[in-house]
Design goal:
With 211 residues, the chain is mostly helical. It is built from 11 helices and 6 strands. The protein has a two-stranded parallel sheet with strand order 1-4. Strands 2-6 form a two-stranded parallel sheet.
Length: 211
């Protein structure tokens, strides 16, 4: 996002953000302000901008119980796709930058997973990991908001607001982009969604607890 995007009127923000959200989340705005502060400071900085993580609660501990019991992955993303990135891949990029920072100073890196996946494809990956049939069920945004508030409102209003905006941005198609930045930085392909989910500690603990 740029200053022009951040300062645009509501109509233009709504258009740029995919039609379902007219503002970034508090977390995204704070991240953007932190980047600007570092840029203005003249300190040597590198901006790492990952897309939605594989480990995001929207894709892990929120839907796990329902997928296991009912075989339904319930999310408000409609027909939109996402390109989730594994946290380990982001950590590897950051570690490499810290080891040899000179070549990276002043640069920004938009990181994504290796492919843009539909929710039906995500559900198919969960079918393999959970060893049971999982199908995608599209929720309304209002239903999703209520679910997020029920789970998070008392624990973290900040996180709840971030996730509610994130669902709108995803449903509006803002997270479908795939880049080759990570491959160029690490010399390997990003971890696939299925591989990352199969190695996910939250998912594996859930499966073990059900045995």
């Amino acid at each position: 996002m740029t200053y022009e995007h951040m300062s645009a009127d509501r109509k233009h923000r709504l258009q740029w953000l995919g039609g379902l959200a007219d503002q970034w989340s508090p977390q995204q705005r704070a991240h953007w302000l932190a980047e600007q502060a570092l840029n203005w400071s003249d300190l040597p900085a590198v901006h790492v901008r990952p897309t939605i993580f594989v480990e995001n609660p929207l894709l892990t501990w929120f839907p796990l119980e329902n997928m296991y019991k009912k075989g339904e992955l319930c999310l408000p993303f409609g027909s939109a796709c996402i390109s989730p990135i594994a946290a380990k891949d982001v950590a590897d990029v950051c570690a490499n930058i810290l080891i040899s920072p000179k070549a990276h100073i002043g640069k920004s890196y938009a990181l994504t997973g290796p492919e843009s996946l539909s929710m039906n494809q995500i559900a198919a990956e969960f079918s393999r990991v959970l060893e049971r049939k999982v199908a995608y069920v599209s929720l309304s945004i209002d239903h999703s908001d209520n679910m997020i508030d029920t789970i998070l409102a008392k624990r973290s209003v900040h996180t709840a607001e971030h996730l509610k905006v994130l669902t709108r941005l995803i449903a509006g198609g803002r997270y479908e982009v795939v880049t080759d930045v990570l491959e160029k930085l690490l010399g390997r392909m990003p971890t696939s969604f299925g591989e990352a989910m199969a190695a996910n500690s939250t998912v594996n603990k859930f499966i073990d607890d059900k045995k």
